Amino acid sequence: MTSTVPVRSAPDAVPPPIPPRVAEPGPPTWRSRLFRWEAGAAPYVYVAPFFLLFAAFGLFPLIYTVWVSLHEFRLNSEMTWVGLDNFVWLFTNEKFYNALLKTFTIGVLSTVPQLMLALGLAHLLNYRMRARNFFRISMIMPYATSVAASTLVFAQIFGRDGGFANWMLSLVGLDAIDWRNGDLTAQIAIAVIVTWRWTGYNALIYLAGMQSISYDLYEAASLDGASRWQQFRHITLPGLRPTILFTVVVSTIGATQLFGEPLLFGGGTPNGGAVNQYQTVGLFMYQQGWQYGSLGRAAAVAWVTFLLIVVLVLLNTAIMRLRTAQRLSGGDD
Amino acid sequence: MDTRRTRTASVVATLTVGALALSACGDGASDEPAAAGGTTDGRTTITVALFGTFGYEESGLFEQYMEENPDILIQYESTQGEDKYWPALQTKLNSGSGAADIQGIEVARISEVTANQADLWTDLRDTPAGERVGDYVSWKADAATTADGKVVGLGTDIGPMALCYRSDLFEAAGLPTEPEELAARMGSWEDFIALGEEFQAGAPDGTAFHDSAGGLYNAIVSTEEQIYHDESGELVLESNQAVRDAFDLAARAGQSGLTAKLEQFVDPSWDAGFGSGTFASIACPSWMIGYIKGKAGDAGSGQWNITTLPGGQGGNWGGAYLGIPEASENKEEAAELLAWLTDAEQQAAVFANVGNFPSNTGAIALVGDTTDEYFNDAPIGEVFTTSAENAPTQILGPHDGVAKNAMVQALLSVEVNGVDPADAWEAGVSQVLNQVR
Predict the structure, then answer these.
(1) Which end of chain A has less Cβ packing within 10 Å, N or C?
(2) Pick from B24, B93, B268: which is nearest to A146 by CB?
(3) What is the Cα–Cα distance from A208 to A113, expressed in whole angstroms?
(4) How far apart are CA A85 and CA B156, in angstroms?
(5) How far apart are the first and last CA of chain A?
(6) What are phi and psi of B255, to 5 degrees?
(7) d(C-alpha B152, C-alpha B323), whole Å
(8) B89: distance to nearest CA of chain A, Å?
(9) Please, are residues A120 and A126 in contact by the beta-carbon 8 Å criterion?
(10) What are the sequence ranges of the domains in chain B?
(11) Is residue A66's pLDDT more than 70?
């Protein structure tokens, strides 16, 4: 932009001519007032049901949780105000830091392979092939299976004695692994369950994103002799940027809240293993609230988790923005 | 044409996905509580919600009661794990709706009920079940009575202790297989460990002497009068030498490879082990009899046998009560059903079917000469009756559940994660103290 650019085009600046007022005798009728009110209020009325429900089932619990977290509150007893004691207890509790670490490692172990696999699958399914719709739809089947059912099956697969995974290992001459009780092995097993369930879901989202990329680009690229890998790298990936951001955010939230899989993998107990080797923050919270009956402490964990998710999502978004900005300023390629 | 085929394929896939989604919903729906009692076509509906295996359904007792009382309709539901059952019940009791007319109460929860929740439960003295209060083993009834005399539950079963073992595996390892011979070899828990070392020396591949250190620990403390609390209700876990000794002995067994390192009720390999023989012995409260039969199946019949705890000690592990939430609208009818279910004849029938040992003194007299074909015709009635007679009156307390869980986890960490027993003990104790203070 330079100073030679004239002042904003004139026609826009001129307000539209005021239509001549029709002389209206007396004050506006009740009817016309209602109409005018309706025109202004209608959008709000239409969106109100969502916000009312959100206030009752989203906002109120959120705020009430803060209230509970400032009390000592056991089931079947009165609440006693304890101020920030629950948070002091939480931040001086090594089990909480352990849970944070395990949530993070299981999150990385499951999210990274999951999204990469999904991207690859989506890219392949984006090509013309036979029975494409069948493959596309069957991909989402794990997602439609209940967590309980799939976790119970995987718990058997990763069983120490006679489990499928150990049988596979024995075929290549490896010793049986006590998946459940090992530190990293239990985390890997849980990451496999999560990955199995969510890869198809993410692949479908990527696929939808890919279909909004013009096919001409691929055609042009292949005419120029670009390999599939080059097409993927230079057309698909840049085109999918917003979709990838979305899946990363959703997966981060999912990983931070991971609960059902480790709970059921641990036979329905919230210990997360003998040395809490797969106790996620979600399990830690459940253990406080429902195994030990300390609802105040559980509420404190819940709020810290919520804040953690907000921070993580902001961080994700900031990183993606930064990369986009770099790209627009001609940073890469 | 090709498109038609792909379309058919995708329709099939869509339908399958839909069916899976529906079945997923089905899973959730079955967890929903039974509808609160009411009246359907002239019959009064009594809802019964229990956990694990109480044996009423398995023994056909609900059916029988409905036949004898045509105006009653019983709706029964069961949650497998007590650790899931109890929290859910707590929220229902607190909100005053959703609880069934008859609810089961595990023995580890009963002191919490009498101490903190007495006003959420019906005083059974004021109901038709009131005249039965004196029918149960005295300590069992005392534990369900509040300080001011209110009775919140009637006893179902108790958990007298014995030791179950695989006679085929014992034989293969060159150990005696007759219950009397084994009992003679085990004067104390130290002898039990020595026997285990002898077993391990000649054991078939892939077989451990005992199932888990946690199970062994629970068996040892089940013979103690004072475990986690003293009579005033103080937590004495830290200072109770009996608990520490039991912990150390179990940890030693775990470290020296005498256990199969399988977490009870949690590890799928534990369930499988009853049949496949990954372990040759297990601490056997009476209710474990039914569990073994269920997991080892018909193929296990004749492989198992049962003997007394070392030194012929008596002990108790587990057991339960039935109570009626204050919010129930059919207390009268529920109390009649409750009294019938916990009456001598019905408790004896449950023992015969699933092994839950009666807490009703009349029933104990009925089952004294029961033998079990599955366990090589072992005199299980006599074994458990003797154990119940020799059992101390345990002091129960509100933190029993938390403490037991922490100790078992600590022992598992010794077995499978190689944690030093002293460190594991510290971790277990601090876990408990962190929660109760």
Answers:
(1) N
(2) B24
(3) 20
(4) 42
(5) 26
(6) -70, -35
(7) 6
(8) 11
(9) no
(10) 39-158+319-367, 159-317+373-436
(11) yes
The DSSP 8-state label assigned to residue B356 in this structure reads P
> What are B364's two structure tokens?
């104990």
Please give the domain boundaries of chain A with CATH numbers for all domains. Answer: 85-328 (1.10.3720.10)
- Cα separation, B61 vs A53, in Å, equals 46
Residue B378, min C-alpha distance to chain A (Å)? 30
- Which chain B residues touch A277 with a CB distance below 8 Å? 417
A269 chain-B contacts, CB cut-off 8 A: 83, 266
Q: Do B266 and A178 touch (CB under 8 A)?
A: no
The residue type at B222: S
**Tokens read off for B376:** 């090589």
How far are the Cα atoms of A186, A272, B242, B282, B421 from residue B417, in angstroms, in the given order?
12, 13, 25, 22, 11
Q: Which superfamily, per CATH, for B39-158+319-367?
A: Periplasmic binding protein-like II (3.40.190.10)
Question: Does the distance separating the beta carbons of B269 and A161 come in below 8 Å?
Answer: yes
Is residue B124 within 8 Å of B324, Cβ to Cβ? yes
The CATH number of B159-317+373-436 is 3.40.190.10
Each residue of B110-155: pLDDT tens digit? 998 998 889 999 999 999 999 889 999 988 999 999 999 999 999 9
Angle, CA B237 vertex, CA B227 and CA A293 arms, to 5°: 95
B139 interface with A at CB cutoff 8 Å: no
pLDDT band at B1 (very low <50, low <70, confident <90, very high): very low
- Per-residue pLDDT tens over the stretch A185-203: 999 999 999 999 999 999 9
Please give the pLDDT value at position B90: 87
Q: Which of A133, A148, A268 sits opposite B9 (nearest CB)?
A: A133
Cβ contact, residue pair B14, A137, below 8 Å:
yes
Q: Which of residues 253-272 of B touch A (CB under 8 A)?
A: 261-263, 265-269, 272
pLDDT (tens digit, 9 = 90+) per residue, A245-279?
899 989 999 999 999 999 999 888 899 999 999 99
Q: Phi, psi at residue B50, to the nearest 5°?
A: -130, 180
Burial A221-243 (b: 16+ CB within 10 A, else e): beeeebeeeebbeebbeebbeeb
Q: Which residues on B lie below 8 Å from A259 (Cβ)? A: none
| Residue in B24, B206, B412 closest to A144 by CB | B24
How high is the pLDDT of residue B34? 43
**Using CA atoms in the order B357, B359, B360, B365, what is the torsion angle rounded to 10 degrees?**
50
Q: What is the pLDDT of residue B41?
A: 67
Tell me how far apart the alpha carbons of residues A74 and A76 are, in angstroms, rounded to a whole number: 6
Query: Count H helices, E strands: chain B?
Result: 18, 10
* pLDDT given at position B40: 62
Query: Using 50, 70 and 90 to split pLDDT, how confident is the model at A123?
Result: confident
Equal fold, B39-158+319-367 vs B159-317+373-436 = yes
Looking at the DSSP assignment, which residues form a beta bridge with residue B75?
B47
The residue of chain B nearest to residue A161, with distances taken between CA atoms, is B269
The sign of the torsion formed by the CA atoms of B279, B285, B286, B287 equals: negative
First-last CA distance in chain B:
73
Q: What's at B225, amino acid-wise?
A: E
Whether B266 sits inside 8 A of A137 (CB atoms) is no
Best mutation target, B267, B271, B423, to test chain A (most A CBs within 10 A): B267
Q: What is the ipTM of this complex?
A: 0.80
B6–A132 CB contact, under 8 Å: yes
For chains A and B, what is the number of CB pairs under 8 angstroms? 123
- Residue A33 pLDDT: 87
Q: Do B9 and A271 touch (CB under 8 A)?
A: no
Task: Give the 3-state secondary structure of residue B226.
Answer: coil
In this structure, the number of other CB atoms found within 10 A of the CB of residue B75 comes to: 17
**B15 and chain A: CB distance < 8 Å anywhere?**
no
